[in-house]
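Throughout our pipeline, every protein is held as a single compact record rather than as scattered files. Nothing more is needed to write down the fold, since each code stands for a local backbone conformation. The record that follows is passed on verbatim for readers who wish to inspect the format.
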Amino acid sequence: MANAATGGPTGAVHRRTYTLDSGATLTQGYGMIQGALDESVQNPTGAGQMPVGIVEFLPFGAETAVSIVVDGEVDAVCSAAIAAGQWVKMDANGAFVPQSADQDNVVGRARTSASSAGDHFILDVHPFVW
């Protein structure tokens, strides 16, 4: 879980509402890439892609709209250890790993640390190319 000392994500958050492309699945705290339509998202198709944002909450029941954080702090999931302050990128499944090379699509900066795959951390979403 995200480092409890932070009290969770804080500050202003910019979120957008998207629909899901056919066959897409949602996991809270994972990144999603641009879908086939202007206002749709899909799962990543490879490592290092630039996400449109991070899934903030899962929709209820048959709801088809999903809240995606495109800027600001969000609870995210890692697939490798991450230290607070590290820049992170998205892996092929939509989880996050440390940025490692020039020209990486950086998603943002870790505000808290995570020690192993599946751990949650606070990610300050601010996408750019390193």
Notes: DSSP finds no helices and nine strands in the chain. The chain has a mean pLDDT of 90.
